[in-house]
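name: query_chain
kind: protein
chains: 1
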Amino acid sequence: MDTRNLFDTRRHMRGAAKFAVVTVIAVFALLIVGAWFLIIEPHMEMVMTENGGHPSTPVSTATPVAPPPPANVEAMDVNQLLSEARKAMTEQRYLAPAGNDAFEFYLKVLQKQPGNKVATDALRETFPFAANSAEQAINSGNFNEAQRQIDLLAQADPANFTVTILRSKLDAQRKLLDKQQQQTLDQQKAQQLAAEKAAADKLAADKLAEQQKAQLAEQQKAKPAATPSRQAAAAGGTAANEGGTAGTANSTGAGRNSDAVLVTGAVPRYPREALRARQGGWVVVSFTIEPNGRTSHVTVVSSEPRRVFDRAAVEAVDRYRFTPAMRNGVAVSSQRQQKIEFNL
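structure:
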């Protein structure tokens, strides 16, 4: 055989094989295109029509007014429920309002007819958009509504991790709100206690001022009674001077006599427990006024109610300052009792 003819024959065979391969590829491409336009696309359009629109349609930010829910959902059959679900999908009522949303209708379809393909596919395809609705409810602070929507998502797909994430976010937002509310309550309580303490301090200061005023009035009344004694003493001193040297010595040794006089008082601190209970009372204390004008040996003689205001009264008297009592011109210690009242 001629070698050149052999080469030509092989070349023709390779060309024929290439042509056959190209032909097969072209036929497959035509079949795929035809299947797309004749089978796949019509089927997708049918599914989208049944589900109320394309799943990838973005969630509208507008809030359309939802129609009233059907009168008796429980009595509706599967076809009626699917029809209501498609309406809800068209209006993007995935999870709300309660009783009139797509998820609830589809879930009722599955209750009546488990495994219904239309309901199952619709729930799966719209799950991401419904999850966005639940997240918006969390962000807006509508926690009860968010909880209801998350429960619907869990019924549709219990194993979906998005449900776990949404529940965690809802729990965190609730804890944050509780913390903020507790801080607000604590601030209000602190302000109330401060206002009550200021009112109690003012009331105690007013009471102390009244007591000091009463004491000064009593001291003013006692002065005229002491004047005749001083005049008699002065007359006796004059007579002694006229009588001789002994009288002069006695007159020189005589000095000024006076009782202790309160110089600085102190407002008793109203006990917090009594302030909260709106409780009043009184305490009678006995104490010593030292020659330096300070108080000591402060003791409670009687009180009502017992032991409620004792400490506050003793602490207040400890802060008192007096002009000490004078005997023959010399400062001496003296005893005194005082009743301290606590009233609101």
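note: Residues 29 and 35 are 10 Å apart (CA to CA).
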